Amino acid sequence: MKRVALVPALAMVGLLAACSSGPTIRSDYDHSANFARYRSFGFMSPLGTDKAGYSTLLTERLKSATRSQMEMRGYVYAEQSPDLLINFNAKLQQKTEVTPAAPMGPYYGYRAGFYGGWPGYAWGNDVYQYTEGTLNIDLIDARRKQLVWEGVSVGVIDDQATASSAQNVDANVAQIFQRYPFRQGSGTPQMPQSTKAQ
Q1: Please, where are the H alpha helices in the chain?
Q2: Could you tell me which of 30, 31, 10 has the C-alpha nearest to residue 135?
Q3: At 41, which helix (H) or strand (E)?
Q4: CA-CA distances (angstroms) from residue 76 to 39, 63, 93, 103, 186?
Q5: Is the peptide bond prior to 103 cis by the omega test (within 30 degrees of 0)?
Q6: What is the pTM of this model?
Q7: Segment 38-55, tens digit of pLDDT
Q8: Residue pLDDT, tens place only, 82-108
């Protein structure tokens, strides 16, 4: 039985934050980059979440949430010549997981072949179909055109009720930025706050 239906990409980020077990967050950064010199940020154009030449609702919510996180860390938004450029990418992927049924042990041997279960009796393999959503936030050195940090959120989408709300986008972006170890003007990484991710 299908547990989760495929949802539009617009809703993916909010659903990641609404997962019952929460998304898994991971991040990495370029250890050779001088983060102390990064003081301002802007956004790529077009962003990976833009479609057909226009900005989506998802893009606008991601920009707002990410700008808030960057400014909390002391970075200044700059439309012209920022030190860092930010890009987003989001995707949905349908997955299937099959768990083989355990062999029927002696406990059920009392039937001894005289009769079986009713049609559809659930002793076959368990098939779990689900939608996995992935969100990437990239920070790029604008001068070198080089990725210097990425944060990734991966989660099973199982709640469509609050899919595209700004509140859920904010929550997911905040979880990703818990893994960002720098503040404006400092090249010394700080220990990331605790998350599910490694």
Answers
A1: 12-18, 57-72, 166-177
A2: 10
A3: strand 40-43
A4: 6, 14, 35, 62, 14
A5: no
A6: 0.72
A7: 999 999 999 998 887 788
A8: 999 999 998 877 878 777 765 555 555
